[in-house]
Amino acid sequence: xxxxxxxxxxxxxxxxxxxxxxxxxxxxxxxxxxxxxxxxxxxxxxxxxxxxxxxxxxxxxxxxxxxxxxxxxxxxxxxxxxxxxxxxxxxxxxxxxxxxxxxxxxxxxxxxxxxxxxxxxxxxxxxxxxxxxxxxxxxxxxxxxxxxxxxxxxxxxxxxxxxxxxxxxxxxxxxxxxxxxxxxxxxxxxxxxxxxxxxxxxxxxxxxxxxxxxxxxxxxxxxxxxxxxxxxxxxxxxxxxxxxxxxxxxxxxxxxxxxxxxxxxxxxxxxxxxxxxxxxxxxxxxxxxxxxxxxxxxxxxxxxxxxxxxxxxxxxxxxxxxxxxxxxxxxxxxxxxxxxxxxxxxxxxxxxxxxxxxxxxxxxxxxxxxxxxxxxxxxxxxxxxxxxxxxxxxxxxxxxxxxxxxxxxxxxxxxxxxxxxxxxxxxxxxxxxxxx
Length: 436
Fold this sequence. Notes:
Elements: H1 7-10, E1 56-62, H2 72-80, H3 92-113, H4 120-138, E2 145-151, H5 158-167, E3 177-182, H6 189-207, H7 217-221, E4 225-229, H8 236-250, E5 262-268, H9 272-277, H10 281-296, E6 302-307, H11 320-329, E7 335-339, H12 347-363, E8 370-372, H13 380-395, H14 414-423
Parallel strand pairs: 1-2, 1-3, 3-4, 5-6, 5-7, 7-8
Helix pairs in contact: 2-3, 4-13, 5-6, 6-14, 8-10, 8-13, 11-12
């Protein structure tokens, strides 16, 4: 999903500026009791001597969004306080609150225009729940699978999710397995990296004896065992879900122009300072686009474009809005926008693309021929892909992708290093790949 939040919508518009091969050695843990199918509320996790490995917590990580307009200020305050997402330098503590206060009324209006709030929580909870139902059938050895959502800037926040895990019986001497499943298919330090930094921070505060002196030795020993699904840009199910939505929208164009519709794959842009540091996001987004084009048979011309640039510094381009306007002015009005880095609708699709980019195209004479492919949302193909990805991760005992241990070449963040060392299980894995 989105790399940095729709900053174009958050600041003045006039300022436009395969899976893990790290394996833990086989450790024999007492397994966790199952949950009765007739119970609407899962009882606490308990230990027993059976061979089952469940329950398993499946934690969907995403940026999140305010569900109501009243939540906008808190959302913006947390967003502008995150130096991983919006680096404001030594003045972050002063500029962040100032910007969030000034932007709140305008952003509240934008959320009001798309129905009064972001639908991302609704879709995230639905996707996680439906995926877990499939996993209970396909992966009975790790069942029951319990869905959780952890948002970086909106409820339910990471710390709320972690408290819920402990309340449900994971950790605190009882062990249990949890999978941090990023809902950003393509990895960026600004999104997945920031979410993992936050998860690591709260894990340290709640389960590390060096940070939480109230923990007993048994509680510290029986902490939650984490693994991470940190990127999945070319998973066949993801590619198929995108391709089917594109094909469905192409059917709305007259047959005689259908193969000449220009496909514009739109992803959130990044500052060139982040790109030049070595962030893998641009390459992984491009990999998704190429895989989708391969599935579609390269029938249509296409471009990868980038949205939500803000501020005077250089950003990755070309910008989505500029590209659409330029093509329409040149007479190419049949354009299909595809949100290629998002797994559900939110303000970047519903407001920025639908109410800004497409509206402006129509004002330039596009006559309704600039359209957007549906977001993945409740797509059964997409949810099956999530289950396939998670199921393979669980069966293979994976910890994370091989890529995750490697920081950006220009990264100097000790926090990033510590987080990667924790989640890659540096001291426990048999594979001696290095975390740098």
